[in-house]
Amino acid sequence: MEMAVSLDFLEKYRQAESDLDATEQTWYLAAAAALAGANVGARQPDLYQMATKDLPLEKELIVQRRIKEVLLKLSLMIGNPRTLGSLIPLFGAFKPGAVDLFGPRTEEQGDAEALERRKKRAADHFATLWSPDAARSNHEILKKNHTDAYLLLAEWSYPWWFSEDRILSLVETQIALAGGITLSNAPLQATWHTRGIVRCGGSKELAERSQNLFLEVGRKFNSLIGDVQLVRDMDFQQPGFLTSFAK
After folding, report:
1. Taking 90 as the threshold, does the pLDDT of residue 242 lie above it?
2. pLDDT value at position 138?
3. How far is it, in rounded angstroms, from Cα 211 to Cα 157?
4. What are the structural domains of the chain?
5. How far is CA 182 from CA 14, 149, 227, in A?
6. pTM for the structure as a whole
7. What pLDDT is attached to residue 32?
8. Burial class (CB in 10 A: 0-12, 13-18, 19+), 54
9. Cβ distance 37 to 29 under 8 Å?
10. Nearest by Cα to 36 from 3, 7, 79
11. Could you tell me the pLDDT band of residue 131, with boundaries at 50, 70 and 90?
12. What is the per-residue DSSP string for 166-203?
């Protein structure tokens, strides 16, 4: 049933960014994330064809890199089954010899200086998302109650996944996370990362347009998304979610 749904509705979001080069547009990032979150990853090839139509190979590979990065970053938010359910079909859309293999994390494995840079960038990113006090409290509550959770959610995920910015900017990363989480029926958590689009430097217009795309994907594919807070109603200065629990 889902395969019959046309993706033509995404064209208006592409047109909204028509002044940008394809390698800088965000509509297909939002769409890839939303399709993954909605568990309709079989449609990723259709999105890829739409996003790369008529592009020269060098630009197609950058778009490919960006979509793959969306799905990689989402793996920690929506789980490996949904992520692989998008990545594997997507791989089937690549033309022979047209596979981008840039791997910024792979390149820096074992590099102590690079790891320190990653940790600094991650700390700054997390503090921007949640505010410095809330970021500290969030880390404290994890350390106090579950050291392995702290290792995964603080020491690994932000330095190695979410704060990596050589493929997607931090704003684009928040678009990706918000899209996948919105379509996974987690409206509170979706609010955190939709708000993060603005907290990381994006415009409210970009956040609202991205959210509109997420919600339209939800309608088209009959996905449960819960009571999503609209961008126009968000408090962009609200601190992080664990603050009140940390003592």
Report:
1. no
2. 86
3. 24
4. 2-245 (1.20.1290)
5. 20, 23, 10
6. 0.94
7. 99
8. exposed
9. no
10. 79
11. confident
12. SSS-HHHHHHHHHHHHHTTT-HHHHHHHHHHHHHTT--
